[in-house]
Specification:
It is a single chain. By secondary structure, the chain is an alpha/beta fold. The chain has ten helices and 15 strands.
């Protein structure tokens, strides 16, 4: 059962988000599914709610560029674009700052993150009442079209709170621009065109498809999947009851075999084991159901990169 919230009752949404819950809210493009971007557990629940079979990067919404600067490196190009188009239907991909509290799940373990400052008044009001940014992909089941009304979100998703903010203005997703490197790249065409960007900012963008250039989460050490035994010089990434063996280091994705908890711990624990003195990372079998599919897909992508 979903909880419908009036746009005049933002405090209810703030309470839900502050306690680790999810809230669907309107932006100028489509409805977003928001959760605390600093919480691994909350971000994992976003993937579960959307029934995603892969861990793809999520955009993070901020109330202004100053608050975003706490977590990302704002480049000169990003400043120029922000001055002309933010708040608005545009997402900037930037380098994460060292020591940021942003969940690694938001960026799928990568060193970059997409940031948004929505121009929708309800979204900005919500963000202004929070002391954390919102991880906020589109509020729809993975594989379905993005939704522009609260009614459509209500029919699609389960067990979320939804702010009724009427119909979204644009109806298509934000334009994604990668500002993290030496050249600017349009990773997704959206509400703001390349011509508009060139006209206002004085430079041209190189158009590419996001899927062709997406970075992969990489590890230095070999990864062994579905491990049933382990050597003394290996590291173990356990799930549930660990393999009984002496090894360099053991971390447990979830002692209670909870897939949501495992998803929340995945990237941080992989990085910790990758930085250990172990020769290899041995990962116990993960059930290939629910968000477990996303965990397994990401593990397979790591060893096949």
């Amino acid at each position: 059962m979903n909880k419908l919230i009036s746009s005049k009752n933002i405090d209810t949404a703030v309470d839900i988000l502050s306690n680790g819950g999810l809230v669907a809210f309107p932006t100028e493009t489509v409805y977003g599914l928001g959760g605390n971007a600093y919480s691994d557990k909350t971000v994992a629940s976003i993937f579960s709610c959307k029934k995603r079979s892969e861990f793809n990067p999520l955009s993070v919404c901020y109330k202004n560029l100053e608050s975003a600067a706490t977590d990302v490196e704002i480049t000169d190009y990003a400043h120029c674009i922000a001055e002309n188009f933010m708040p608005g239907p545009i997402t900037l991909v930037l380098k994460r700052k060292v020591g940021t509290n942003l969940s690694l799940l938001c960026s799928a373990g990568l060193d970059t993150i997409g940031i948004r400052i929505p121009s929708n008044s309800i979204a900005l009001d919500l963000l202004s009442h929070l002391n954390f940014p919102l991880a906020a992909p589109s509020a729809n089941t993975s594989g379905k079209l993005s939704h522009t009304t609260s009614e459509a979100v209500n029919e699609d998703l389960d067990n979320v709170a939804i702010i009724d903010g009427g119909k979204c203005n644009f109806g298509i997703e934000s334009t994604i621009i990668d500002c993290s490197g030496e050249e600017l790249l349009i990773r997704r065409q959206g509400a703001i065109t390349a011509d508009e960007l060139a006209k206002k900012c004085g430079f041209l963008m190189k158009k590419i498809k996001f899927e062709e250039k997406i970075k992969k989460f990489m590890l230095k050490k070999p990864v062994i999947l579905n491990a049933t035994s382990i050597n003394y010089n290996d590291a173990l990434l356990a799930f549930g009851e660990p393999i009984r063996s002496s090894c360099q280091k053991t971390l447990n994705l979830s002692k209670n075999a909870d897939l949501n908890e495992a998803a929340a711990n995945l990237f941080s624990m992989l990085q910790e084991l990758d930085n250990s003195d172990a020769a290899r990372i041995c990962v116990m079998s993960i059930p290939n159901t629910g968000i477990g599919k996303a965990i397994n897909n990401r593990l397979i992508s790591i060893i096949s990169f």
